[in-house]
Write a structure and sequence with these properties.
Layout lengths: L11 H4 L15 H35 L6 H23 L5 E7 L4 E5 L3 E2 L5 E5 L6 H5 L8 E10 L2 E9 L15 H7 L15 H7 L6 E6 L5 H15 L1 H7 L1 E5 L2 H7 L2 H4 L6 E4 L15 H7 L4 H10 L9 E5 L2 E5 L1 H14 L7 H19 L5 H9 L2 H10 L5 H7 L3 H8 L5 H11 L6 H14 L13 E2 L2 E2 L4 H6 L16 E4 L7 H10 L4 E6 L9 H11 L5 E6 L1 E2 L4 H11 L10 E2 L8 E5 L4 H15 L4 E4 L5 H4 L8 E4 L9 E7 L1 H8 L1 H8 L2 E10 L1
Parallel strand pairs: 2-4, 7-15, 7-16, 8-9, 8-14, 14-15, 17-18, 19-23, 20-21, 20-22, 22-23
Antiparallel strand pairs: 1-2, 1-5, 3-4, 5-6, 10-11, 12-13
Helix pairs in contact: 2-3, 6-7, 7-8, 11-19, 12-18, 12-20, 13-14, 14-15, 17-20, 18-19, 20-22, 22-23, 24-28, 27-28
């Protein structure tokens, strides 16, 4: 069956003729006529997709019909054939909406259409070029100065299978006599549309500087920087889709990890990759990178600054060496009629000797048993002179009471239990001696006594997991199978069609092929250590803006990042255009931030709305009605979403005014990476005082159309 260009066809797209015959352009055409022309082509593509889908369904059904297959190799091929057919159907279905979105007219009169996936016609000629293929690059990179032989670029916007709008950019003025130019710019139209509470893909409106970052090599580290609204997050997500397309066998088998700052943020971006036809990347917030934990609580800034710092490393190392709560403090053994005891001090000395040989408690139980036997032998030998060490070890070491004592004295430790020890001020003070002041100890201990984990706790849990020791897991069986001693070396499916088996990837998986980190400027050193374990051999994409950082010690974090990211080739990209904020909103935010933040990166806002920022100052008892009124006004002024960003201590009272599904109340830290059509920023100075000017700057740059700032008198 015919297929769209996949990873193996990336080079092929450069070699084949990716143009096709369309009606001869008429410069006098009306928008309606041009839409009709594009509708004809879109109908042709969808008709071909329907055929391909029917073929895939037929292949799937044929596979199911092969119930009589009895040879193991044949059964395996049947199952893989069914799987690939089902996957093919899913690919076609996921890209159905807005399948065709672009057209290129070249100087020589040829035409190339660009879409969400590649489609070939009945004679295996390219009908539609996948947006990730090299042949599609001119759609994003051609400019009036570097046209790449492109005369006109057209963006096609559809609803379902119906073309609704087209918008053209004429790159070659000499072509004006033969090419009609319709619309006033697809990018501006896209930027002006209402927000829905979910991030959209920008596959139809990727700009040249964004495209360069998306198509950077997957090996090494790619650093994407830029101020607010420059599209860093969505570029990183499109980059994941591009890498999967370019080398699916590598990135789908080993996996791509996408990490964001919060669960709210991950929900916001969650549909971008599926909308691009990619379901295989693993998306985790920083609060989810420990299996079984979904942390959403934010620590107070002063507590988070301690928990996230490298000062926690020696403290955690001391903590795991402490005697577990409830461990027995005396060992009594009867040998040859005499009672021999190890008291608390002797047990502590034995524990210290164990850690000299194996610092990871969960891997040291055998060593712990040996240390107890050695300590007992030293007491027994002077009393029972005829005792033999080997016989003594076999006798005492196999006794039920000794093994029971060992289990209680040296239990298997869970990271969550060990971290909870830190809730005891005395235990934490002992571990933190020389590293943490009394006030910090009390604050951290109070946080660790909470019934749930905070987001910074997750990195501590992961560090403890390594310090305690991870027991080796048995490897899965190899895919090469054997029956009755005859090994199946390969099948036709293996040799020609199959992709490598995807490895199971939970939150502890550490063999990713690529790691994408968004809002990287906020990561603490401990969080960088946690991520570094997931991508020891990976390529990296690191996205951020230092001016928006909430981490108070950037040098410490930068050093941790260098240690986490493998050294290698570095690709750096700087985005310079603000596509989110109106000029009015961003200039207000920039004027506020410039005197408060050093080395601030100020991109150029590309559009104006004519709507100025509203500032209000009210008494504390008037705050609630003032915010409620601002929400009502915003709902009437915009078609999309409204965000209330307020200090966490204000959330309980403000929650009562959130009744409309278009309104969201979030804290300053959760607002990172998000956007709304209208934003009400509450008590900005309190935000700046608690979290720093960088976070307050974030709050001021979340609105696409309208910003209202309400402060307390």
């Amino acid at each position: 069956m015919s297929q769209e260009p996949g990873p193996a066809d990336a080079q092929h797209d450069q070699d084949v003729d990716t143009t096709h015959a369309v009606p001869v352009p008429d410069p006098a055409s009306t928008p309606e006529q041009e839409i009709a022309i594009e509708q004809g082509f879109v109908d042709r593509v969808y008709a071909r997709v329907d055929v391909l889908r029917g073929e895939a369904e037929g292949n799937r059904d044929s596979g199911y019909a092969h119930l009589a297959a009895t040879v193991p190799g044949a059964r395996y091929e049947r199952d893989v054939f069914v799987f690939q057919a089902a996957r093919r159907i899913a690919d076609l279905d996921s890209q159905h909406e807005g399948l065709v979105f672009g057209r290129l007219d070249f100087d020589d009169g040829k035409v190339r259409h660009v879409g969400r996936l590649g489609v070939r016609d009945e004679e295996y000629r390219t009908l539609l070029v996948d947006w990730r293929a090299p042949a599609a690059a001119p759609f994003y990179r051609a400019t009036a100065l570097e046209r790449q032989d492109v005369a006109r670029r057209r963006v096609i916007r559809s609803f379902g299978r119906t073309v609704e709008e087209i918008s053209d950019d004429l790159l070659n003025e000499d072509a004006a006599e033969r090419l009609p130019v319709i619309g006033d710019g697809a990018l501006m139209a896209a930027l002006g549309r209402k927000r829905t509470g979910r991030m959209r893909d920008i596959v139809a409106t990727i700009q040249a500087e964004q495209d360069a970052a998306i198509r950077a090599p997957g090996r090494g580290a790619t650093i994407i920087t830029g101020g607010p609204g420059t599209g860093k997050t969505v570029v990183a997500l499109h980059r994941a889709a591009f890498l999967l397309y370019q080398d699916r066998s590598r990135y789908e088998a080993a996996g791509i990890l996408v990490v964001g700052p919060s669960a709210v943020f991950m929900k916001y971006i969650g549909r971008v990759l599926p909308s691009l036809g990619e379901e295989t990347a693993a998306l985790y917030s920083l609060g989810e990178l420990y299996a079984g934990v979904e942390a959403v609580r934010q620590d107070r800034p002063e507590v988070a600054a301690v928990k996230g710092g490298t000062v926690m490393l020696p403290i955690l190392r001391r903590l795991v060496r402490q005697t577990p709560p409830g461990a027995p403090d005396e060992l009594r053994i009867v040998y040859r009629g005499d009672v021999f005891k190890l008291d608390a001090a002797e047990l502590a000395a034995a524990r210290a000797r164990v850690f000299e040989k194996e610092p990871r408690p969960n891997l040291a139980k055998t060593e712990a048993g040996r240390a107890l036997l050695v300590a007992l032998w030293r007491k027994i030998k002077p009393v029972v002179e005829e005792a033999e060490p080997a016989k003594f070890s076999r006798d005492v070491g196999s006794r039920g009471e000794f093994l029971t004592f060992l289990d209680h004295w040296w239990p298997d430790l869970d990271p969550s239990d060990v971290l909870a020890w830190g809730g005891d001020v005395r235990r934490l003070a002992s571990a933190a001696e020389g590293h943490m002041k009394k006030e910090a100890i009390e604050n951290v201990a109070a946080s660790l006594r909470e019934t749930d984990f905070s987001i910074p706790d997750v990195a501590l849990l992961d560090e403890l997991r390594i310090l305690l020791g991870v027991k080796p897991q048995p490897r899965g069986r190899d895919r090469i199978r054997s029956w009755d001693g005859i090994q199946e070396v390969s099948t036709v499916q293996d040799r020609y069609y199959d992709r490598p088996e995807r490895q199971a990837r939970d939150a502890f998986y550490e063999d990713y092929a690529h790691v994408i980190v968004d809002e990287a400027q906020d990561l603490s050193p401990m969080q960088w250590r946690m991520l570094g374990r997931r991508g020891r051999g990976a390529g990296w994409t690191i996205v951020g803006d230092e001016a928006q950082s909430s981490w108070p010690r950037p040098r410490e974090s930068a050093d941790a990042r260098r240690r986490a990211v493998p050294s290698g080739r570095l690709h750096e990209f700087h985005l310079t255009k603000n596509y989110r904020n109106s000029k009015e909103v961003f200039e207000y935010a920039a004027d506020w931030a410039k005197p408060r933040l050093r080395n601030i990166d100020l991109p150029e806002a590309v559009r104006e709305t004519g709507v100025s920022v509203v500032e209000k100052t009210v008494a504390a008892d008037a705050l609630l009605p003032e915010v409620a009124g601002a929400v009502v006004q915003a709902l009437g002024a915009v078609e999309g979403t409204v965000g209330i960003i307020a200090p966490y201590r204000r959330h309980a009272e403000l929650a009562d005014i959130v009744h409309d599904g278009r309104v969201t109340l979030v804290g300053p830290l959760e607002s990172k990476g998000l956007e709304w059509d209208a934003v009400i920023a509450v008590d900005l100075e309190a935000v700046a005082k608690a979290h720093g000017a960088g976070v307050a700057y974030v709050v001021l740059t979340r609105a696409t159309q309208r910003l209202t700032r309400i402060d307390l008198a």
